[in-house]
Design goal:
The protein has one domain (1-302): ApbE-like domains (T-fold). It is 29% helix and 29% strand. It has helices at 29-46, 54-60, 73-86, 96-101, 115-123, 129-132, 154-168, 253-262, 268-272; strands spanning 8-14, 17-23, 65-68, 133-136, 139-142, 174-177, 181-185, 190-196, 199-209, 213-218, 223-224, 228-229, 232-233, 238-239, 243-250, 278-283, 288-290, 296-298. An 8-stranded antiparallel beta sheet has the order 1-2-6-7-10-15-16-17. It has a 3-stranded antiparallel beta sheet with strand order 3-5-4. Strands 8-9-18 form a 3-stranded antiparallel beta sheet, with no helix packed on it. Helix 3 runs parallel beside helix 8 (253-262) and helix 7 runs antiparallel to helix 8. It is globular.
Length: 302
């Protein structure tokens, strides 16, 4: 994915995707184990696809409860709350149940629930983070079963956590690439192809990333059925249909990841009032939008 001149590549599969870490010097075996352990602990907390995760315990708590999250939840949920506000509720980590009802559930049935089941769920009222969750530091308080899905920010945030581990171990020249969520550090920029929204063997442009993060989001990466995919407007539970792909460059991968999702619902000018980023956005009619300061180019006219 990059053209960085590196001395070492460490590839592995985790949280349902392929990772590749490129570094200036080979990673020690101890550091490799620490990275894999960090990812495992994150997954054991936030994965709604694992029956043993903390998120799954919350989803099974019919009467709610008090749940202690690790320290990393403070920044993660704090960013979600900012995105929830600036998108008027379109980005919400409680969208998990809507994804399940559409078939993107823990067992990947990919079959939407019957209309009667969905209607009964909606009659109880869609959960909203600001109304159904209380936070007291690391503690999350619920009053009913809630399905938390951190997919809009979580992978980017985990890329940041791994990047922090590399820096703490003395690595300053690296690329952490988690299949679309990437963070770069070092003096030489890395070139990243912007994958065609509907053609994995084609690119529509290129970005030059140096000491920043680049994250992508697209409706084709996880899609099933007619018009069904994983990018939902949490206010309606309906997959978006006006935008098909986004790319965001920001200082941190968590922010780039979250904004790549927010751009499906909210105009970039509104987001720029609260966040510093550059972007590319492709609409469903094929029109491409490119911020003037995006560090790269499109191979077609915006």
């Amino acid at each position: 994915m990059s053209n960085a001149e590196t001395a070492s590549r460490f590839g592995f599969d985790a949280i349902g995707t392929h990772w590749q870490i490129e570094t200036d010097e080979p990673l020690s075996q101890d550091l490799r184990r620490l990275i894999l352990d960090r990812i495992e602990r994150f997954d054991a907390t936030y994965s709604r696809f694992r029956p043993d995760s903390l998120v799954s315990r919350i989803a099974a708590a019919t009467d709610g409860g008090r749940f202690a999250f690790p320290d990393d939840s403070l920044a993660l949920f704090g960013l979600y709350e900012r995105l929830h506000a600036v998108t008027d509720g379109a980005v919400d980590p409680l969208v998990g149940r809507e994804l399940e009802l559409l078939g993107y559930d823990a067992t990947y049935t990919l079959r939407p629930a019957p209309d009667a089941v969905r209607a009964a769920e909606h009659a109880r009222g869609r959960p909203i983070w600001a109304a159904d969750i209380s936070r007291d530091g690391r503690r999350v308080i619920t009053r009913r079963a809630l399905v938390i899905d951190v997919g809009a920010v979580g992978k980017g945030y985990l890329v940041d956590l791994v990047s922090d581990q590399l820096r703490a171990a003395g690595h300053t020249d690296f690329v952490v690439d988690a299949s679309g969520d990437l963070r770069h550090s070092g003096p030489r920029a890395t070139r990243v192809g912007l994958e065609h929204p509907f053609g994995r063997r084609q690119v529509i442009g290129v970005a030059e990333v140096r000491d920043q993060a680049l994250c992508a989001s697209g409706v084709s990466s996880r899609s099933w059925g007619d018009g069904l995919h994983h990018v939902l407007d949490a206010r309606t539970g309906v997959p978006v249909d006006q935008v098909v792909a986004t790319w965001v460059v920001a200082q941190e991968a968590a922010l780039a990841d979250g904004l790549a999702t927010a751009l499906f619902f909210t105009e970039p000018q509104r987001l720029a009032e609260s966040f510093d980023f550059t972007y590319v956005r492709v609409r469903s009619d094929g029109r491409a939008e490119l911020s003037p300061d995006f560090p790269g180019e499109l191979f077609t006219r915006p």
